[in-house]
Design a protein that fits this description.
Layout: H1 4-30, E1 40-46, E2 61-68, H2 72-101, H3 110-126, H4 131-192, H5 198-214, E3 217-221, E4 227-231, E5 236-239, E6 242-243, E7 246-250, E8 256-261, E9 267-269, H6 277-313, E10 316-320, E11 327-329, E12 334-335, E13 343-344, H7 346-350, H8 369-376, H9 383-386, H10 390-430, H11 434-468
Antiparallel strand pairs: 1-2, 3-4, 4-5, 5-6, 7-8, 8-9, 10-11, 12-13
Helix pairs in contact: 1-11, 2-4, 2-5, 2-6, 2-10, 3-4, 3-8, 4-5, 4-6, 5-6, 6-8, 6-10
Length: about 475
């Protein structure tokens, strides 16, 4: 029944409620620079009224809950875009390193090495018996082979570097999923008790964002507030109370594939199913771009080795074969079959007179026809099923590297802009505005002071009643 004590109870309840609102405002101000923090507010509701003549009378205010201001849809979009951004950042980083391997601006690239090689054959054709010309050709050939070797070695080194990066990324993923499981349990325990686990949810969302930057994920929340995390292809990473680990397994190329282990210990290779995040970018660089360029480089080296050897073995050098008394023939010019194994034949390197410039034994040493034929290989349509020359094939390869880098950079910039837009939108919804919090602080302070004044008034009223006795 409303009386002086009822007024005192209303004032007291108001005092405590405004104090909670000030506490929450202070929490918001304290976390204005905390990554992933979502601002909170006290939801105030009128407390239950009582029936009285001439009608119901209110009993004040209560704090119904401390609400987290958060848009789950935006959170999902941010995680999706973050996976794309992570992928393109990793890809762009790797391709930028590869681009340096194909850089011709320094004057010591493969294009210059091939040009010097063909030019040396032209010079030998002009003077087939000349020792200086043969020495220059030997040097140019060794330089060409070393350039192929170095480019192949550098591409393989990049593959190995990113192979190690992949293993390190999996350690990060496993660490994050373990922490998400821990937060799942904490959130469940708090919310089963009827409380809002706002801070734990912010921490978990921040971990999910970090995880999405490493690997594409999908998330689902159950009735207990626990989140299930799946990879883009549906492989479980988190199903509380379990976190499934990702590990590596060496493949036929000596590189590490990504494998998923279930609760029974069975492993499944999911390398081909990784759909986004830095992990996808590292895999694309290692198994896609670097391997693709390496294959094309091997194809070019193999073709040059094969064509030059075929022509060279049909010609005649200046060294006399003791067995026949005739100039040597059938001598290979290069050894190896790939960019990594290409080398000047040791016999030719030791004796430049074995270089077969002549087309027949009878015309040694003045015959230059075989040297001319080998020099002309530069202009023959040999690569790509007889549709392009050696030089044009390499130019197209170098151009494709540049195009891939440009494409990766454009995608990285686009995804970065999208992430900035989404982050700004999230901040407009969930971020802390100091101006707004200061306004709230003043508002709640005044309400607190008014409630305190009400208590003082009720105290005066009680003193008046007591003095009447």
């Amino acid at each position: 029944m409303p009386d002086i004590y009822g007024i005192l109870s209303t004032a007291s309840r108001s005092l405590l409620t405004q104090q909670k609102a000030i506490d929450v405002t202070g929490q918001n101000i304290a976390n204005v620079n905390t990554p992933g923090y979502s601002r909170q507010r006290v939801v105030m509701e009128p407390s239950a009224p009582i029936n009285f003549e001439p009608g119901q009378m209110g009993t004040g205010v209560k704090a119904a809950e401390i609400q987290r201001i958060y848009d789950g849809f935006i959170g999902g979009q941010i995680n999706g875009e973050n996976a794309k951004l992570g992928q393109w950042e990793a890809t762009e980083s790797g391709l930028s390193r590869i681009e340096l391997i194909f850089n011709e601006s320094s004057g010591v690239g493969l294009e210059q090495a091939m040009g010097a090689f063909w030019s040396a054959w032209q010079d030998l054709a002009n003077n087939p018996a000349g020792y200086p010309e043969r020495t220059v050709l030997r040097s140019a050939s060794e330089t060409l082979a070393r350039t192929f070797n170095t480019m192949s070695e550098n591409l393989q080194q990049i593959q190995m570097d990113y192979d190690n990066t992949i293993a390190g990324t999996l350690d990060e993923i496993n660490g994050l999923t373990g922490r998400i499981v821990d937060l799942n349990e904490k959130i469940s325990q708090v919310e089963i008790a009827g409380q809002n686990s706002n801070d734990y949810r912010d921490q978990r969302d921040q971990l999910l964002k970090e995880l999405s930057g490493l690997i594409e994920i999908d998330t689902y929340e159950n009735e207990q507030g626990q989140v299930t995390v799946l990879t883009g292809n549906g492989t479980a990473l988190v199903q509380s109370p379990y976190a499934y680990e990702l590990s590596t397994q060496v493949n036929a190329n000596g590189l590490q594939n990504v494998v998923w282990t279930d609760r029974s210990g069975t492993t499944i290779d999911i390398t081909a199913d990784i759909g986004g995040g830095e992990l996808k970018g590292w895999l694309d660089v290692r198994d896609g771009y670097a391997q693709g360029y390496l294959d094309e480089l091997d194809a070019l080296a193999n073709a040059i080795i094969g064509e030059v050897n075929t022509m060279h073995q049909s010609g005649y050098g200046m060294t006399i074969d003791p067995a026949t008394g005739l100039p040597t023939t059938g001598q290979a010019f290069f050894t190896g079959s790939t960019a990594a194994t290409m080398a000047l034949d040791p016999a030719v390197a030791a004796d430049v007179n074995l270089i077969a410039a002549a087309a027949t034994a009878a015309t040694v040493p003045g015959d230059n026809r075989n040297a001319v034929a080998i020099a002309e290989l530069q202009n023959q349509l040999i690569m790509n099923s007889g549709s392009t020359t050696f030089d044009n094939y390499y130019s197209a390869l170098a151009s494709s590297v540049g195009n891939d880098v440009s494409n990766a950079s454009a995608n990285q910039e686009y995804e970065s802009a999208m992430m900035t837009h989404l982050e700004n939108y999230r901040e407009s919804v969930s971020g802390v505005s100091l101006d707004e919090e200061m306004v709230n602080l003043v508002k709640f302070q005044h309400a607190y002071e008014a409630a305190a004044k009400l208590i003082t008034t009720v105290d005066d009223m009680l003193n008046t009643v007591l003095n009447m006795v």
